[in-house]
Amino acid sequence: MSNPSILILPGDGIGPEVMAQVTRIIDWFGEKRDLKFDVETDLVGGAAYDKHGVPLADETMARAMEVDAVLLGAVGGPKYDDLDFSVKPERGLLRLRKEMDLFSNLRPAQCFDALADFSSLKKDIVSGLDIMIVRELTSGVYFGEPRGIHKEGNERVGINTQRYTESEIARVARSAFELARKRGNKVCSMEKANVMESGILWRDVVQEIHDAEYPDVELSHMYADNGAMQLVRAPKQFDVIVTDNLFGDVLSDCAAMLTGSLGMLPSASLGLPNADGRPKALYEPVHGSAPDITGQGKANPIACILSFAMALRYSFDQGAEATRLEKAVEKVLADGARTADLMGPEGGTPVSTTQMGDVILEAL
Amino acid sequence: MSNPSILILPGDGIGPEVMAQVTRIIDWFGEKRDLKFDVETDLVGGAAYDKHGVPLADETMARAMEVDAVLLGAVGGPKYDDLDFSVKPERGLLRLRKEMDLFSNLRPAQCFDALADFSSLKKDIVSGLDIMIVRELTSGVYFGEPRGIHKEGNERVGINTQRYTESEIARVARSAFELARKRGNKVCSMEKANVMESGILWRDVVQEIHDAEYPDVELSHMYADNGAMQLVRAPKQFDVIVTDNLFGDVLSDCAAMLTGSLGMLPSASLGLPNADGRPKALYEPVHGSAPDITGQGKANPIACILSFAMALRYSFDQGAEATRLEKAVEKVLADGARTADLMGPEGGTPVSTTQMGDVILEAL
Ligand SMILES: CC(C)[C@H](C(=O)O)[C@@H](O)C(=O)O
Ligand SMILES: CC(C)[C@H](C(=O)O)[C@@H](O)C(=O)O
User: Fold this and answer.
1) Total structural domains in chain A?
2) pTM of the full predicted structure?
3) A165 and A244 part of one domain
4) Do B225 and A155 touch (CB under 8 A)?
5) Which of A131, A256, B1, B355 is the most exposed place for a label (fewest CB within 10 A)?
6) Is A317 touching ligand 2 by the criterion CB < 6 Å?
């Protein structure tokens, strides 16, 4: 039987730097734990545009559909700011999400004990924080038609369409309820049902799926503006949050920043199961391509490494090995290893991107 | 010459309670400062629905168009949750915004010294914070057509339309640049130009207005998700933020909560100037109708009182009197008067809604 396959797309900015450390960790699992993967690497984002004139080549898209998991670094950078909308680096990522039908984006917002001081929030508000944001990722205003800029009389008009079907809402709701059952058994759904009809449908469908299939899970609804407030005021009130593509974008970034652990946060984007039961899946750090620190050995590879841990858990059914990797990361943090973004007043041992890889490998 | 006119719409929940204190303050200005207003009171939101079957009667709308300023308390409450979308309390407020063409919503996020400890953020991150969020209020996904829920085959589909014209963006951009010139001279515009064409148009038009008319103001652009992050990480980097209706809804609530002063924050919604040079205007607290504490004398009237201060400044050209009122509020806080929402570990003198009105009148 062949090994499970992984497509690595390091992308732009610090993407390649952090991904280099993940590659070493994948190798370690092959050598030491007899968990071998067939790994191939390709381009996405600006890097793909530079070579192919598009942010994701068709061949890369085709491979992404075939492999068992995709690991992505980050896309985008100022160099590409003036590109036409249709070939912006982000379009590569959006094409992957859409064509792989990755409707459920899992974004844990977790506060690491060793880093609680990094949060701009008071320690007691965030320490021990552990929220899972489930963001719908293949629909809504990101993909709705009609869209574009056109002329009406003398002036330009910009249009986008927020569009959700019942089944699109139902499937991401299910994925949130399933997750909640393995965690605190509590889901809060966020929309603007007070001003948007698409929000009314969202609320109704989430409630219906709950009542029919997950009555044991505690469900609440909140307007997204209040959601942003409550995340800042008392984030620990939440367990799983489920919301649409656009609110999920803003609220998950807000939640991530609360933790003070932005360079630490992974994400998983999951689709429907293949014949072998594995969901189509893409894993990527929550942070972006950080052009300001690219190439300086300053990037924190942990978010990307923990994204691979999520791959072990969700794509390869290796929960124990995922935990092993997560524990190794916790250990090096407790031991004081700190990339530049983690250097606070209380000190620690400054390490480069590669050195962070070194100590995590040692801890493994 | 007749007195300037004010239409008071107390609305639902704590709206009437906080507005009662504002009425006393308006009377004080008439008696002691010879600033007389013709005040009339009417219904909006659930209160209007209960009487008229609609959340804003046509006669009320007509009066709102005629008066010099509208003061609104709050709308909404659980009692109205199951009403049809078209008659929900919120529709009354949205109708006022739309028909009065109140395109520029000014939402200061300000941290009051005496209350810095209330923020969930660390004191050094928020103390002295003073941001002005300028939110577009008459367009975008709140009002775009087509909208609604319909059937496609067997399933329901929910649709809303984000739509911005060049002139809608230009006028709110101008209002942000004008404000910036009177403050820190810095504007940050937020959108999702990386995924939404309406965001591209937003960014382009803001930049064009800047280059042509306000080159002296410092302008930057930020994606709204990053904006949410930066608000949490380091809010003091901002002076004026300009953004669309929906992002403005979420980001201004997030910013308001950062300050720890939610019960303190006023807002002004301004339209085009009338023949007499006064802009059409509606003033309201940022907080909602707070059904959980309605009728208990617990509500903090300060946000509503400071909204009247904004009316003095923006509608009645009484900047000095506005400052007098704001200083009175600061004084009672410094003296320790605290409604329930302001009661922290460091104590203070607990006061009811009415007592807070009493001490502010005394301080005046
Ligand atoms: C890069 C961008 C297209 C993307 C998004 O808006 O979804 C990013 O912000 C994210 O959250 O993954
Ligand atoms: C009450 C509601 C319609 C309103 C909005 O969404 O604009 C409120 O949240 C606000 O921010 O004023």
Assistant:
1) 2
2) 0.96
3) yes
4) no
5) B1
6) no
